[in-house]
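Reading a protein record of the kind used here takes little practice once its layout is understood. Each number in the token line that follows is a code from a learned vocabulary of backbone shapes. One such record is shown here in full, so that the layout can be seen directly:
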Amino acid sequence: MNVYDFKVLNQKNEEVSLDIYKGKVLLIVNTATKCGFTPQYEALEAMYEELKDKGFEILDFPCNQFLHQAPGSDEEINQFCSLRFNTKFPRFKKIDVKGDNADPLYKWLICQNEKNKPKNIKWNFTKFLIDRNGNVVERFGSMAKPEKFIDKVREELEK
């Protein structure tokens, strides 16, 4: 099993198969618009602009589970990110990333570690780096700023 086996909902509530991203390096991020880490959108967009033509995509999954820091509708979240941070990478429907109602993608992501045991999402802006074969190669916590791991993304793109 890999990331391409999953289907998610876009902001129009339409099913999207992640296999459309086959062969690309992905960064999957759970986000929030009213979080102390929200300014990371700026660095994420800069990374996206630099690397998108080399086969890189950022997949943004808003989540309201951490102190309700992603209020508003999917449309309101998209407008905020587009207007405030000029983001152009794909944003999907707001989801849960932990607990019984967690999206199946995230139930899988949190188990992709050395022991294949769940390592729950602790906060907004947890980032998963996915290689061109759809496998998780690294997980970065909320505190990890994009500029600190962009070289790791570049390495994956060169493989």
In short: The chain has one domain: 3-158. The longest strand covers residues 25-31.
